[in-house]
Design brief:
alpha+beta, 3-stranded antiparallel sheet, 11 helices, 15 strands, globular
């Protein structure tokens, strides 16, 4: 009798293991849909969430050049410096254990993704760390980049973690853009912003694309080749991504390394440029993080890095290494698990990762103020 019970228990675990098997789509393969009753969920509520996403399109212009200029009109000297592209309509995918539960819109259309690019940039830093190109994120960046970018009393204190967590308060100019002119305070004027008292690195988070681009420039020096090439060779080719994604820099953002002229890319798109990518390739990228850095048993980025990247920073409990965290803070989504983390970009571009449940959500062009409500609706279906 005990022997029979043991056999039944083993069989039960085997069935559970099969039901939890993760599917990884091959390159060019039509993404598999979840079969009927494969997962326990309320299809009506899931459809309600999808209809909500479709009905709450980002309110900005589909001509993203116009949306960018309007969205950042407060910034002095703001202009478009890199490529832009008119966007499509709402699109997205809801995936569990690799299987598609729902999708909407044109998931193969390539669009700008704005600050979702930052999570890709953070990943390039993680790949450098895994390969030993960066010994520690607490190393001073000036010991790797000696061309003056990190000279001075303040900038010489900045380490890789400060740049990744956006709390460096790096001061200076890169590609003709001044740090203080990016997302300036609502109070004061040019002189107040220009001659402000600098915050000690690691103490205050300030979302700032100039400093993010300093990170991209610094990583280009470390890798000694363009970051899009690094991303392609080290990650995107290994996950079967399409050949349609592109990562741009500003038109004039060129540097020379080893005698080769190469573009230094941006970590966002609010002056143009950044990552242009389709929904399905965003989902493939999210799947790597959903599965603790693995793709079909191959460890592409270390689990240690992902854990470090998704820890809250001291100044902002909702921000890690260019991943947003749903901890209780200023960006907390109510009735959504606190352990999730996500990439977020202008215009409602998101990659939401829940490692515990195997749930992955990708959205394009969903009104950002509606995102928390949308994610709540998705979780209400389970």
């Amino acid at each position: 009798m005990k022997y029979l019970q043991c056999i039944l228990v083993i069989a039960l675990f085997q069935v559970q293991g099969i039901s939890q098997e993760v599917y990884f789509p091959k390159q060019h393969e039509a993404w598999k849909q979840a079969s009927s009753n494969q997962f326990k969920l309320n299809e009506n509520k899931l459809n309600e969430a999808v209809e909500f996403a479709k009905a709450n399109e980002y309110s900005g212009s589909r001509d993203l050049r116009q949306a960018i200029l309007k969205g950042f009109q407060r910034e002095p000297f703001h202009e478009i410096l890199g490529p832009t592209k008119k966007r499509g309509g709402p699109a997205g995918m809801i995936i569990k254990n690799g299987y598609v539960l729902a999708s909407w819109g044109d998931t193969k259309r390539v669009d700008m993704t704005f600050s979702v690019t930052k999570s890709f940039l953070s990943t390039v830093a993680g790949l450098a760390s895994d390969k030993g190109l960066i010994s520690s994120t607490t190393d001073k960046v000036g010991s790797y980049v000696w061309d003056g970018t990190f000279d001075g009393v303040h900038n010489s204190k900045i380490n890789w973690e400060h740049l990744l967590q956006q709390n460096s308060d790096w001061t200076g100019e890169l590609w003709g853009l001044k740090d203080w002119a990016d997302r300036p305070p609502r109070e004061g004027g040019l002189d107040d912003w220009k001659f402000r008292k600098l915050n000690e690195p690691g103490t205050v988070m300030e979302y700032n694309d100039v400093r993010v681009n300093v990170l991209a420039y610094s990583l280009t020096q470390v890798w000694r080749k363009p970051l899009p090439q690094v991303l392609k060779e080290e990650l995107m080719d290994n996950i079967g991504a399409s050949t349609t994604w592109r990562w741009f820099g500003y038109d004039h953002a060129w540097t020379v390394i080893d005698g080769i002229k190469m573009k230094s890319v941006t970590g966002g798109g609010h002056s143009g440029a950044g990552l242009f990518i389709n929904t399905e390739d965003m989902a493939r990228f999210g799947m790597v993080f959903l599965n603790h850095g693995q793709w079909e048993g191959q460890q592409l980025i270390s689990e240690e890095w992902i854990s470090k990247a998704t820890q809250p920073s001291v100044p902002n409990v909702n921000y890690g290494y260019m991943w947003w965290l749903n901890r209780k803070g200023n960006r907390h989504w109510e009735d959504v698990p606190e352990h999730i983390f996500y990439a977020a970009g202008f215009g409602g571009n998101y990659i939401v990762v829940d490692q515990k449940s195997g749930l992955l959500i990708v959205t394009r062009w969903l009104e950002p103020q509606k995102m928390g409500e949308f994610v709540k609706l998705v979780y209400g279906a389970f």
